Amino acid sequence: MGSILFFNILRFVALFILQVFLFKNIGYYNLATPFPYILIILLLPIGIPNIVLYTLAFLTGLCVDSFYDTLGIHAAACVSMAFFRIFFFKITLEVDMVESYLTPLLGEMNFKWFLSYVFFSALVHHTVLYFLETFNFHQLPYTLMSIGLSCIFTLVISLIFSFLFYKKKKNRS
Amino acid sequence: MRALWLFLRRYNAFFWFILFFGFSLVLVVLKNNYQRSSAFNSSNALVGEAYARINSWKSYLLLTETNENLAKENAQLRNNLQYFTTHDTTRMTTVLPKIDSAQVSRYDFQVAKVTNNSVHQKSNYITLDKGLADGVEKGMGVISSNGVVGYVLHVSKHFCTVQSLLHPDTKISVTLDSTDVFGSLVWGNNIDYRLAMVKDIPNHVKVKKGEKVYTSGFSEHFPKGIYVGMVMETGITSGDSFLDLRIILSNDFAKLQQVYIVKDIYAKEKRELEALNQDNG
């Protein structure tokens, strides 16, 4: 339990610093920007109570917002992603799994599940983010392209992170 | 009552979502109304400090280029200075310039360092390490040795944020080298931070490629004659009787390090006078 808390805090600090100082400056023209900080919320323990999950998602979003000068936009995107996470767990995991405090990482879950989990979560996050940012439907193709490309970008970087910290599945009994 | 409670319990994920999402949306909308609350942006002391520290390391990588730019600017200023200090009137080919003493001290320049910068967002902002304590006020113009940068949007005690030229709401009055017509400089729908558009140039004006673009001095933010960029593409019509130009910006926004904050001493007077026009409709 203590180590779970420790690793989550460590992950928060590391990903947050990387996001605001490194990934903020990386972009493919203005089309795609990676947001791997969403892993902070995605990798929280599975059985975390809903209200705690939402609060953490909201606060993470707010912290990122203050560095991006976009008050509320990242917070809204993170909260939507938290909602999607609960929904996704409900339809893909078994009940005893949902109540455990496992970290949904690559070593614990199979690859296909993890890939779709990160991809669809990123899709939800980026869709809310870009539509709130533009706040209109004038340049719809451009916005959609940004969303798609950013999703792929985020997914690739998230996978690199997960492979870097890959751990073999432990034998629990 | 019990049924309602059970209903709320069963779908709690959804109701929490509505609550938190609603709150975030309120923040977004509030930001549009009040131009963002000052607590959560990069002119905030904590965030500004963090950016300043990271940037002090980053600036080492650009030292050569910064040096070169400053040397170039020095040479240019020295050239201009020669014009005023030469006493030998027989050697002067042109007439001695008339100096309007009211205009000479109209603008104050203050050096500031860039602590945070972005070029990849839709709306780009820059944070500088000067604030209220250094006499910076909202609406002051910001230039660099290469050209126009933007104007001050928010000020805290030791930092200020600048709405950069790479922002959809930024509009700067500019004029061309050859003729005195003026248009407005905007970033336009560009996704490239090296390019910008000049809009509303009258149709009858012949514009050549490679022509230089300067600020016109009509806005209170910038003095007259600051180099902005070079015309790259002409004849983009936006309908009607106006012409659009695409220009290459002289400023490399990605490598911004040293900038000057411009203070117009008569800004308040000018603004008050112009406000009278609007009162009369």
From TrEMBL, chain A:
Residues passing through the membrane, by range: 6-23, 35-59, 71-93, 114-132, 144-166
Top-rank lineage group of the source organism: Bacteria
Keywords for this protein: Membrane, Transmembrane, Transmembrane helix
Protein's name according to its UniProt entry: Rod shape-determining protein MreD
From TrEMBL, chain B:
Membrane-crossing segments per the record: 12-30
Domain Rod shape-determining protein MreC beta-barrel core positions: 114-263
InterPro entries named among the record's database cross-references: Cell/Rod_1, Cell/Rod_MreC_2, MreC, MreC_beta-barrel_core
Superkingdom of this protein's organism: Bacteria
GO biological process, one term: regulation of cell shape
Keyword Ligase appears in the UniProt entry: no
A cellular component annotation (GO) from this entry: plasma membrane
Coiled-coil intervals, chain numbering: none
Cell membrane is among the record's keywords: no
Keyword terms: Cell shape, Membrane, Transmembrane, Transmembrane helix
Pfam family, one: MreC
Family to which the UniProt record says this protein belongs: Belongs to the MreC family.
Protein name stated in the entry: Cell shape-determining protein MreC
Organism, scientific name: Rhinopithecimicrobium faecis
